[in-house]
Design a protein that fits this description.
single chain; about 150 residues; alpha+beta; 5-stranded mixed sheet; two-stranded antiparallel sheet; 7 strands; about 25% strand; globular
Length: about 150
Amino acid sequence: MHVRPATADDLDAIVRGNMNLAEESEQVRLDPAMLRPGVAALLDGRAPGRYWVAELDGAVVGQLLITYEWSDWRNCMVWWIQSVYVAQHARRSGVLTTLYRHLRKEAQAAGAGGLRLYVDNTNSRAQAAYAALGMTGDHYRVFEDMFSEPARIE
């Protein structure tokens, strides 16, 4: 397995991964006309963040997005993990662990203060996976005020 920063050539795979992620984890149907340019903005460097992909036999089997939060308490960036997806056929084969370990080393080398993520309250499978990586979810609770939401699958 090989982990690398995503490029514009990965646009279709990442869009597909995000569509699957939203449906599987939150029963949400994303609008491809909104999602595709959103992913492209990150891949083109027009938005703050960076995708990483895991490849197996030359095919993308996993992805995650990093965005950044300045921590005045720590005087450094905290990296937020988002848009984590592993293709169904590649699950339970170490893709997430490989992505996470690679990302953790990158964050430490860049002087980041740590890694954070949020997970849907009902997604117990993802919560267990993150706990197995050594992450904890008992320190903060995320609150939000979102101005628009994608459509729920009925």
